Amino acid sequence: MKVFGEFAFDERARQLRRGGSIVPLQGQSLDLLILLLGRAGQLITREEIRSILWPDSNVDFEHSLDVLVNRLRMTLGDTSKSARYIQTVPKKGYRFVEQVRSEPGGAEAPTGFSWIRSTARYASVAVLAALLALLFAHSRYQKFVPLHGVPAPASSR
Questions:
Q1: ∠ at Cα 32 (29, 33), nearest 5°?
Q2: What element of type H or E holds 113?
Q3: What secondary structure does DSSP assign to 118-147, as a single string?
Q4: Average pLDDT of 129-151?
Q5: How far apart, in whole angstroms, are the C-alpha atoms of residue 75 and residue 146?
Q6: Residue 27 and residue 67 in contact, taking contact as beta carbons nearer than 8 Å
Q7: Would you say 26 and 75 are in contact if contact means Cβ atoms under 8 Å apart?
């Protein structure tokens, strides 16, 4: 999970969240965000972005990239004049300027240790439930099953 500002981006689920709510983001806007977050603080040239997002295309790249960056900025509540997240380096490219930190969470696969810990937790609960069931059964059925060496009470018929 990459966290920046008021956002959290789950890399595995490819979801952007703000305050726990999913922010709709897809397609090339999502790909651009992943690229920027992966190289936060570094200049990513317009040519690098073109080669990654439009590798075999003959689209009007300049206009398409401008629209894409503006769409991503709007999603993040950012502007080019007061860039909090995406800084434009004129004629060069873009830089993600907000501090990005990685945190555990999201839909990440469990590590070996966390898998063992959660399995141990479930096993502990299962053992406790079995012991409680045995204790309950023993207390309920003790009057029906005679103890060893003690005769069963005579029925009063």
A1: 85
A2: helix 112-141
A3: HHHHHHHHHHHHHHHHHHHHHHHHTTTSPP
A4: 70
A5: 74
A6: no
A7: no
CA distances from 92 to 37, 41, 49, 88, 138 (A): 18, 14, 11, 8, 78
β-pair type (2-4, 101-102): antiparallel
Q: What single-letter amino acid sits at 128? A: L
| 119-148 exposure pattern, b = at least 16 Cβ within 10 A, e = fewer | eeeeeeeeeeeeeeeeeeeeeeeeeeeeee
Determine the angle formed by the axes of helices 27-38 and 46-53, rounding to 10 degrees: 130
Sign of CA dihedral 58, 59, 63, 66: negative
- pTM value > 0.85: no
pLDDT in tens, 7-52: 999 988 999 999 889 999 889 999 999 999 999 999 999 999 998 9
* Helices 27-38, 61-76: crossing angle, 10 deg rounding: 80
Q: How many CB atoms lie within 10 A of CB 91?
A: 7
Q: Which helix (H) or strand (E) holds 115?
A: helix 112-141
